[in-house]
Amino acid sequence: MRLDSNFVFNKIYGIEFGVLSPRMIEKMSSVAITSSELYDIDGFPVDGGLADMRLGITDPGLVCRTCGNTIKDCPGHFGHLELARPVFNIKMIPKIYDLLNATCDACGRILIPEAVLKKATITMDAIEAREGDLGKKRYVRKLIKHAKSINTCPFCHSKQHKVKLEKPYTFMYNGQKLNASDVRERLERISDADLQFLGMSQEYSRPEWMIFTVLPIPPVTIRPPITLESGQKSEDDLTHKLTDIVRTNQRLAENIKSGAPEVIIEELWDLLQYHITTFISNGTAQVPIARHKSGKKLKTLEDRIKGKEGRFRGSTLGKRANYSARSTISPDSMIRLDEVGVPMQIAKEVTYPERVTEMNIDRLKSLIKNLDGYPNASYIVTPDGIRRKITESTVQNILDELKPGYIVERSMLNGDIILFNRQPSLHRLSIMGHSVRVLDGKTFRINPASTLPYGADFDGDEMNIHVLQTEEALAEAALIMNIKNNIVSPRHGLPVIGAAQDYISGSAILTRKETKIDKSTAEDFLTFVGIDAKLSKSTYTGREIFSMLLPKDLNFESESSVYKFSNDEDSYVVIKNGKLERGIIDSATIGKENGSLLQYLFVQYGGETTAKFIDQLSRLALITLLKFGISANIANFDLPEKTMSEIYSIFEEANEEVNKMLKDYNKDVEQNILSLTNKVRGKIRNATRAGINKKANEIDDMMITGAKGSIMNFFPTAGMIGQQLLRDTRMSNGYDGRLTAHFKKNDMGLIPRGFVVSNYRDGLNPIEFFLHAGSSREGLMDNVIRTPVSGYMNRRLSSALQDLKVADDLSVREGNKIIQFMYGEDGLDVSLSDKGELNI
Amino acid sequence: MDIDIFNNRLSPKYKILDPNEADKILLRFKCSRSNLPKIKTTDPAVIALKANEGDILEITRASKSAGEAIYYRVVIR
Ligand SMILES: [Mg+2]
Ligand SMILES: [Zn+2]
Ligand SMILES: [Zn+2]
Predict the structure, then answer these.
(1) What is the pLDDT of residue A666?
(2) Which domains occur in chain A, in start order?
(3) Does residue B1 have a pLDDT over 70?
(4) Cα(A216) to centroid of ligand 2, in Å?
């Protein structure tokens, strides 16, 4: 019986799940297990043992005695074990329990009258036609529940005594224990006609089959012994458990035969039940866990299927990828934004298969010669597809043999294109093509300008790289997926790669009108940035230095962040013929998710120019900041006396108004107070904004350049925090009629309902602190609850949309099925549009 | 119940394509009827138009991104 002659080509019509009958188990068995021994003294498998060669083959070179195949083709074959006494299948206990109580303990019929059953047949068919198997399952569950509640048999009119289940597998009836034999007898009495109402079938699942009389013995191919380094064989957990089962079964059979006392038989029977239970499932409540001598839990059949590491979640849906690596990430502003710093250890280990040509043969040969050094090569693949390891003994032959057409698996080199990924991969930009830069150290290095699309920070985040193995994939990663070509997001048409924080402060300082740089400093700057220019003047303005990064034909105008705040004409950005004539370069022009200049460069000049600009600008901003410095100061938060008293009188006025509103009480009073507190917050914010000391205030500089922080952070720090909210209302719940014991009952004034008068700098009083924490907690809770919900929504969407693609004619298709006749209805690539709009 | 369902600002413009036009569309998108989006014969618009199974409807909808967008649906049972 050869395997390949045995294939059946047919379309699967359906799948029927059922319980194996003892007859079926015997029929599919190729050997009856009779011995608990595995191997004889010479190390050969014992006939009728658990390693019998009719169960399949795990040794290369041996031939299966059932199918005649070797290890490669033998699928393994079941055996069977005749049990001395019947034993429960632990997974069937709940069903058995249901059946015992849903059927008559005298005649075995279902406890539902004939007339009702007739109607149930019709209803069930209708439900199955309408709702399918799930509906039928629900209906059966209802029928069983109903039958269980009936106390007199409608057929033989006998009074019913209910069976009780003592976990895990003892059934009690009238104060007496029902053993597996008794239960099996009762299940046998259930008539075929009643089975459909119990969710079972005569053909595929007779109830008594839920109790083993014959145990199927799985093939050795699913429990192969492993040979340890010492040459000793170590058996699989399943084999260990099966040995216990066979041994106990033998002892039970012998004791029954010799007429041993009932107590001993009972004890062995229980032991057999225990072993078979822990063979199937190791972790059933109230069953002691079967362990190795070392105390390690035995892996059972159930463990192989269930849970995260099981067959479905662990092997089918999630697999490990070859040619990939994972490490912690850390920032490095000195590498290009399209580079990724790869640790030497990884570069040596993960290989790229390079095809040998006339042009690269000498270089590849030198890699092959380099054996254990770096860069080196570890394998070659001949044109016939044979892989050969490069070792000291094979290197000479390989060098002689190597010619165009061979493939050399060489280590990663600087400039190789790889894929860089951070999970969760929520959008396209979570996987992008980067260029390798082999570095010392053990972390992946990433330019901080390109963290946003990945959502990465450096508090221990880890990322993955994938080394591409084919030229097609390489081309796609180098062009379409390359980070340089994804600077502008396809979502909103704004750059997702750009400057943030210090880089914005740096370039804003550089491009201030008053920034002057002497010649030697300018030379330092330009050297650091990597620009080779002849300097003729003795001093330069910052704007002149900045202009050296721009394309010579660039004409551009834009509001800057500073301009939006100050309306100062000098801060409005005007670039003419590659010269920054006026304007401050800040978050509105170069910032992440803002930068109009980056967006313009990307659309007009392409990714290469934009990436180069960001890299040079980052360096220029860094060295500017290094030279000029920026440091915040607690005095930056000082507000003038006048402003502070203004803020306090805003509160006083509101407080008085609230007291008045409470006196002329009406049903909308709470709503009115709430909207008053919102107005108060606005007033406090505006008063604070107006009062900020603009001179030599670095915090203010950071706010108006968009480097970090906003008035929303400033006013509660320097001014007044204001109303604390819980579920969009004023805080009110706690003690009876009041928030805490510190307030009068039913006082609905501002402070007793969570208005915080202090600010962060001066500090909160204990009650304010407590209420403020309460409202912060709401945000944390919301976040925790929302994250899995939106994660699941995203997963459902991704699964539904993952195969859609834009065809050459701009239609959106899934396979050849048309979803949309024109992508986005307008056929525009948002990343090449003007912030999502068409601008002609 | 004599309501003109097309006389409503939310209702798009429908047109039944004649066999010639239908073939042109199939050729233009290099696909067969089974690849097109579907609309049931029980759809109020199909009933009102008295369209038959296999007909292709040209639907002109208002579009946020393009102003007007054209969509084709094949009538199925
Ligand atoms: Mg993190
Ligand atoms: Zn075999
Ligand atoms: Zn009965």
Answers:
(1) 87
(2) 22-78+218-226 (no CATH), 90-210 (no CATH), 236-319 (no CATH), 324-486 (2.40.40.20), 502-628 (1.10.274.100), 634-781 (1.10.132.30)
(3) no
(4) 16
